[in-house]
Write a structure and sequence with these properties.
eight-stranded antiparallel β-barrel, 2 helices
């Protein structure tokens, strides 16, 4: 079973690769017509972990933007009434976000002249690994969530973002020592980096 420390190291290496590979691309000035975004984030809500994401623009207006984001996330959760995180979840997520693109004088002073507040809805499916089960067998994890986010984007297309949201999470069946309906309402806080291209 992967520990949260190993997962954090892997995600840190992937972040360094993403930033390193985008250095050569960031010589041009970014504009709002960019159709794709690669990102990495930390989940600091009720479950702890991190993930990688690919964002695709579905509609790109002058002000309103609709994006679809696919992500792969690994996180640790407390499901077996232990003191520490006892269960790993490898999840696959899809999220739709509707945002308003703009620019601001105040954020320009810190090198982030563009911003985009947005609302999102999403769903995910995950494989569960605990001391009583492995990723290759049931139970499985699913969630439905929604919330709001905000991203700040530099002139070269690098961005920082945060998301606050919540929803419902469940297992398809019970783990040993735990009811299948033990998961319920959940809270998510994502902090991350995106590169737009």
């Amino acid at each position: 079973m992967h520990t949260p420390q190993k997962i954090a190291k892997i995600l840190g290496l992937l972040l360094m690769l993403a930033i390193g590979s985008s250095v050569g691309l960031s010589a041009r000035e970014w504009d709002s017509s960019s159709r794709f975004a690669l990102g990495i984030y930390a989940n600091t809500g009720a479950s702890m972990g991190g993930g990688l994401e690919l964002g695709i623009s579905l509609y790109q207006g002058q002000v309103v933007q609709l994006r679809n984001t696919l992500s792969l996330e690994s996180k640790a959760a407390k499901l077996l009434q232990d003191e520490s995180f006892d269960t790993n979840i490898l999840g696959f997520y899809e999220k739709l976000s509707l945002g308003i693109f703009g620019g601001g004088g105040i954020s320009s002073y810190i090198g982030l002249p563009y911003f985009r507040p947005y609302l999102f809805v999403g769903a995910g499916f995950g494989l569960v690994s605990a001391r009583t089960s492995s990723f290759a067998q049931a139970p499985y994890y699913w969630e439905v969530s929604g919330g709001l986010g905000h991203e700040f984007i530099s002139k070269s297309g690098h961005g920082a973002f945060f998301e606050l949201g919540g929803g419902v999470a469940r297992l398809t069946q019970a783990l040993l020592e735990q009811r299948a309906d033990a998961l319920g309402g959940m809270f998510k806080v994502l902090l991350g980096y995106r590169y737009f291209f």
